[in-house]
Design a protein that fits this description.
This protein is α/β, with parallel strands linked by helices and 153 residues long. Helices cover 52% and strands 16% of the residues. It contains 5 helices and 5 strands. It has helices spanning 20-32, 43-53, 68-78, 96-104, 117-152; strands spanning 12-16, 36-40, 57-61, 86-91, 109-112. Strands 2-1-3-4-5 form a 5-stranded parallel sheet, with helices on both faces. Helix 2 (43-53) runs parallel beside helix 3 (68-78). The longest helix has 36 residues, at 117-152. The N and C termini lie far apart (56 Å).
């Protein structure tokens, strides 16, 4: 299955994975789909980038050392922009406890490694649509707040 996906505007995808080859492969694939990709090997540097750039698409390796993955997932989801983005968690296996912990920590979806191209492209297409819908909702909310503020004056 060969999908053509082009981001309606230049979305940035943040890829956090300790494995350099996988980071590079996912970033390269994302770039061919019209995304600007930034990748980091650890939660701390990824969080720094997230705080300054607020990317809307995030790929989080669930195998980061210690509790870094669930902690980062929760931090991102609890951030001001946390409800306006999509998080994909990459797991090393299809274990029930991984599924639950990924979703509890804020992931929208989890995928087992190695990542299949078709699944990757499907997630990107779905995530881009979700982000577009969330941007519209965010914009509508700001318009409603502006009208409410005017009425309160």
């Amino acid at each position: 299955m060969n999908m053509t996906i082009m981001a309606p505007l230049q979305e940035t995808i943040l890829i956090i994975d300790a494995d350099k080859a996988r980071r590079n492969s996912l970033a390269s694939s994302a770039a061919t789909l019209g995304l600007s990709a930034k990748s980091y090997p650890d939660a701390a540097s990824a969080w720094d980038f997230f705080e300054t750039e607020s990317p809307r698409l995030i790929v989080l390796d669930w195998g980061l050392p210690g509790t870094a993955s669930p902690e980062l997932g929760r931090k991102v989801r609890n951030a001001a922009m946390g409800r306006y983005l999509s998080i994909l968690a990459l797991t090393g296996g299809d274990r029930t406890e991984d599924t639950g912990s990924c979703l509890e920590a804020g992931a929208n979806l989890y995928m087992t490694k190695p990542v299949r191209r078709e699944s990757w492209q499907t997630w990107i297409a779905s995530a881009l649509q979700q982000v577009a819908d969330l941007r519209e909702l965010e914009s509508s909310g700001a318009e409603i707040k502006g009208v409410k503020d005017e009425l309160d004056e």
